[in-house]
From TrEMBL:
Family in the record: Belongs to the nitroreductase family.
Domain Nitroreductase: 10-186
GO molecular function: oxidoreductase activity
Organism name: Croceitalea dokdonensis DOKDO 023
Protein name: Nitroreductase
Length: 210
């Protein structure tokens, strides 16, 4: 089987992690770098990523995660928090980074900056938040695939109380909102779901060639 398909077939939403198996620092750095390199609209990356290993905090997060054991048993909990609102500083900071990274004059980027601002700044706050959340999901997908390549298990989770996460992570007042949670680690042998055949739509129903 092609490696790309092998990785996607191997991974599943892990229901039970082995709490005694931890992701190494080296592998964690690879996963975080893959996340950092993820694509995003205009390259703006309007989110922040929290990496949680503190067991006491994980215990506090579990009750507000529908009591799911992945929160306390996984090696690390990755929380993607999207920006709930933004102003011109989001684009200005990005363009300053472009100027430094590519060693080009900042003034040469003004036209692109004005274009981005014309498309984004006048959006309603709710629309901005939806857009930034979508960008976080792109990064989530990249992290999940990188983990599968390393044979590290993941379980993307929307089953949590975002407001409680925001409180426990100190996000209130920081213009951030917990969008999606990803426990990472290694599957427990007794997790029966790892043996279930993967259920997906047949390609005849999913794809239309025009």
């Amino acid at each position: 089987m092609n490696n790309i398909l092998e990785h996607r077939t191997w991974r599943y939403a892990t229901k039970k992690f082995d709490p005694n198996k931890k992701v190494s620092n080296a592998d964690l750095e690879l996963l975080l770098e893959a996340t950092r390199l993820s694509s995003s609209s205009y390259g703006l990356q309007p989110y922040h990523v929290f990496v949680i290993t503190d067991q006491e905090l994980k215990e506090k997060l579990k009750p507000v995660s529908w009591g799911q054991s992945q929160i306390t048993d996984a090696s690390h909990i990755i929380v993607f928090a999207n920006k709930t609102d933004f102003g011109p500083e989001l684009m200005d900071d990005y363009l300053n980074n472009v100027s430094i990274t590519r060693n080009i004059p900042a003034e040469s980027l003004k036209g692109y900056g004005d274009f981005m601002k014309s498309k984004l700044l006048e959006l309603p706050v709710e629309t901005k938040s939806t857009w930034t959340e979508k960008q976080a999901y792109i990064a989530l997908a990249n992290l999940m695939q990188a983990a599968a390549e390393l044979k590290i298990d993941t379980c993307p989770m929307e089953g949590f109380e975002a407001d409680k996460y925001n409180e426990l992570l100190g996000l209130h007042g920081k213009n951030l909102n917990a969008a999606v949670v990803l426990p990472i680690g290694y599957r427990a042998e007794e997790d029966e779901t790892q043996h279930y055949p993967k259920v997906r739509l047949p390609k005849e129903k999913l794809f239309t060639h025009i």
